[in-house]
Amino acid sequence: MVRKICVLGAGIIGLYSAVRILEDLQNVDVTVIAEKFSPNNTSDVAAGFWIPHKMGSTNISLIKRWGDETFQYLLNLHESPMASELGIQLVSGYHLNSRQVNPFWKDTVFNLRDLTPEENKLFPNYTNNRFFTSIIVCGTLYLKWLMGRFISLGGKVKSKKLESLSEVMADFDIVVNCCGLGNYHLINDRQMTPIRGQVIRVNAPWIKHFYVASGVDKPVYIFPSKNYVVLGGTSQEGNWDTTPNEEDQRHILDSCAQVVPSLKNVEILETRVGLRPFRKETRLDQETVTFNGRTIQVINNYGHGGCGLTTFVGCAKDVVAMIRGAGVAPRYGAKL
């Protein structure tokens, strides 16, 4: 029997979940329904740097497992001929802090070390500084490829704004809710709140390292990507405004130039704003709903804050495991 599955949301969390379902399970018919698609998602605005942050009180062991699985997946893509097409690259750089930290992800990234005294002189405003190598992925390029992969596997796509989950209950056996911030209205989840992030994409090909400064009032980050350098940023909880703000723009440019002076008067390519889908605790669970006498499995996979591109693979594997638990058979050779 073919099970009809609906995935709500076409950001990195939803689209990869949909692909993984088709790759790992047999006798499934999968449709992605979303109001917005790339390049108009938060995943397109994200810097795409692998580092866990903004996940509230979500269990650290879960974040680490989800993140480690995602890191390994991205690393495998980096080692493939597709890396350039997907905008995936290894990037080394500086993690600057004004307070002592011991990140739980230190053994996932490569070669994390303290800066030498001479290196620390480069960053006099920060006292606890490290250097390491991580992965960066261009969300727009990767989502484009992922959509192609989904279609090639037989996936279907529908553009629609939903007002209620009941709108899809009659047509599907399983609903995977990856609507992110949209769940504030869709299922009235008042734990969802936006964390507004404004970024500037600039033409600065001489920037080869990343710079992340934390432990300060406003975050500062500089990430070299395939076709531009991302400067950020803001972290404004509860702010729903997606219009670029001139005051934020000045702050970003000034703050980044303080860390890397060569960025002063840099050529601006574009400014974008994304709303991180923050929840006190990421929701990845399942429930059963009765609709017109039918039992529907609803899987919730949302509220990843600033970690969508850091945890999407591990979360999708958990989604697949839940669907398998409902009696859907794996494809031959598929591995969780």
TrEMBL record:
Name the SUPFAM superfamilies for this protein. Answer: FAD-linked reductases, C-terminal domain (SSF54373), Nucleotide-binding domain (SSF51971)
Question: Where in or outside the cell is it found?
Answer: Peroxisome matrix
The coenzyme or cofactor needed here is: FAD
- Statement: the UniProt record of this protein carries the keyword Chaperone: no
Q: Which residues form the FAD dependent oxidoreductase domain?
A: 4-321
Q: Which InterPro entries match?
A: DAO (IPR023209), FAD-dep_OxRdtase (IPR006076)
Which residues are D-dopa-binding?
221, 276, 306
Primary localization class, coarse: other
One GO term in the molecular function aspect is: FAD binding
Q: Per the record, GO CC terms?
A: peroxisomal matrix
Recorded superkingdom: Eukaryota
Q: A Pfam family for this UniProt protein?
A: DAO
* Chain sites annotated for binding FAD: 42-43, 305-310
Set out the biological process GO terms recorded for this chain's protein. Answer: D-amino acid catabolic process
User: Which of UniProt's keywords are assigned here?
Assistant: FAD, Flavoprotein, Oxidoreductase
Record's family? Belongs to the DAMOX/DASOX family.
PANTHER family, from UniProt? D-AMINO ACID OXIDASE (PTHR11530), D-ASPARTATE OXIDASE (PTHR11530:SF11)
**Name of this chain's protein:** D-amino-acid oxidase-like
Q: What is the species listed in this Swiss-Prot or TrEMBL entry?
A: Octopus sinensis
